[in-house]
Write a structure and sequence with these properties.
single chain, Quinone Oxidoreductase, Chain A, domain 1, Rossmann fold, 2 domains, 10 strands
Amino acid sequence: MRAARLHEYDETLSRTEVLRLEEVPEPKIEEPDDVIVRIGGAGLCRSDLHIIEGSLRAQLNTPLPITLGHENAGWVDAVGEMVRTVKPGDPVIVHLVVTDGVCAACRRGEDMHCVSLKFPGIDTDGGFAEFLRVKERSVLKLPAGLEPKDAAPYADAGLTSYRAARRAAAILRPGMTAVVIGFGGLGHVGAQILRALCAARIVIVDVSSAALELAS
């Protein structure tokens, strides 16, 4: 299969061909709860650019070469023998991490602290490729009419905004005010979620006139 892979850092993000499009082996079913996703959309996150420029190398320890892409969606291509919630052909969005579901952190709903966590596109190959192997608990079936390419960015930007907005909505009441600072990739999603979850007054703050115009 084809994959866009990062072989070396570009500290100035100035090269025209940072990622190399190469042929790599297709992922195969290895465990009973594995799911192979045929990628239909993969978002380009600001974190991807930080990885490319090498500014996160100390924190993330990203191995090179690597296939980037942690905002992924597509269609189920194959499933392990124990998978029950999805089947080949189902459109799905992929949670940004792959976890075991049985450790103490996962049982508390704190998947990001899973003891066996894998982060496709960060510490293992991600979705800038034709196929991606994840786990059944990492995929969520998309509703009819929602294309994977349109849903992919919500795997990270949407999820991050939702968590913050949901926590805020739990304490916001009618007559109260919520301030969204920055109306960029996460801010505009967070504002929309707040509007859906609570009746508080929402104020958008941004230094960009274009962003404020979009907010209005």
